[in-house]
Amino acid sequence: xxxxxxxxxxDRKRVQAxxxxxxxxxxxxxxxxxGKALIALACFEYLDTTIGPYNEIGLAVAVVRxxxxxxxxxxxxxxxxxxxxxASLFSICRSL
Length: 96
What we know:
By secondary structure, the protein is an alpha+beta fold. It has one domain (2-95). It has 3 helices and 6 strands, in the order E-H-E-E-E-E-E-H-H. A hairpin with a 7-residue loop joins strand 4 (36-46) and strand 5 (54-61). The longest helix has 13 residues, at 83-95. It is elongated and about 45 Å long.
């Protein structure tokens, strides 16, 4: 398997509009800076499987319900990723 992950900062209003259009208007982006929400794009190429090779793409945005105040700790805690790895990610995103 080969994998490529990329993280982008996207206008928060556009992300919220996409959530609303998808029927998830009860959710809001939680990881954001200066009006931009953090989204992740993951691309996978599976080379050796029982059903043959295939590709897969995933798009993710960290969200919370509208009745929850967004804060930085929600997504890393949910994914159980060590905070030192997130510190590197945040510094990269800020430089974009």
